[in-house]
Amino acid sequence: MKHLLLSLSLLLGLSFQVHAEEALSITPEETWALVQAQGDRLLFVDVRDPVEIMFIGFTDAVDVNIPFKLVDRTRFDENKAKFAMVTNPDFAAEVEAALAAKGLDRNALVITMCRSGSSRGKPSADYLLERGFTNVKYIDHGFQGSTAKDGKMKGLRVVNGWQNAGLPWSMDINPDKIYRP
């Protein structure tokens, strides 16, 4: 049916908006290899709130920290026992500025990384694709990885992700790369 509609649209000269594809994931190891081999031709963005980075850790392999979601400390959800997170209204513009600073444009590879890969990594990559960036991926399982399902480490983020892949990271934050509004 989809092909029939597309063919009919083309025959009749009708146009319609095609939605951007969903962002694809990339492993931490693949990202590290790309950063090492062609870091000047891509932008690696840590999309976590900088306060989260302060308590979880950071990799200096990223080019820049531009939060996709920012913690709103004025809105606390009593039921979830969490502060609200709001989309950074300047996210796409700040990513574009970071690309320009490296001499790149919206067609360059952009790789996003959050804590786990699913709550901000993929959504931030999809968000950029929807806004005209053409080559965006996100790190599967993010910086900290997934939680162990059983054993003595059950519930701790010790499975997959950047930290658990043995890639470089530290509790030290590079002041030249951390987000400061």
UniProtKB/TrEMBL annotation:
Domain Rhodanese per the UniProt entry, residue ranges: 38-155
Source species, domain of life: Bacteria
MF GO annotations: transferase activity
Signal peptide feature range: 1-20
InterPro entries per UniProt: Rhodanese-like_dom, Rhodanese-like_dom_sf
Keywords: Signal, Transferase
Family matches, as SUPFAM superfamilies: Rhodanese/Cell cycle control phosphatase
Record bears the keyword Transferase: yes
Transmembrane segments: none
SMART domains (alphabetical): RHOD (SM00450)
Name under which the protein is recorded: Sulfurtransferase
Native source organism of the sequence: Marinobacter lutaoensis
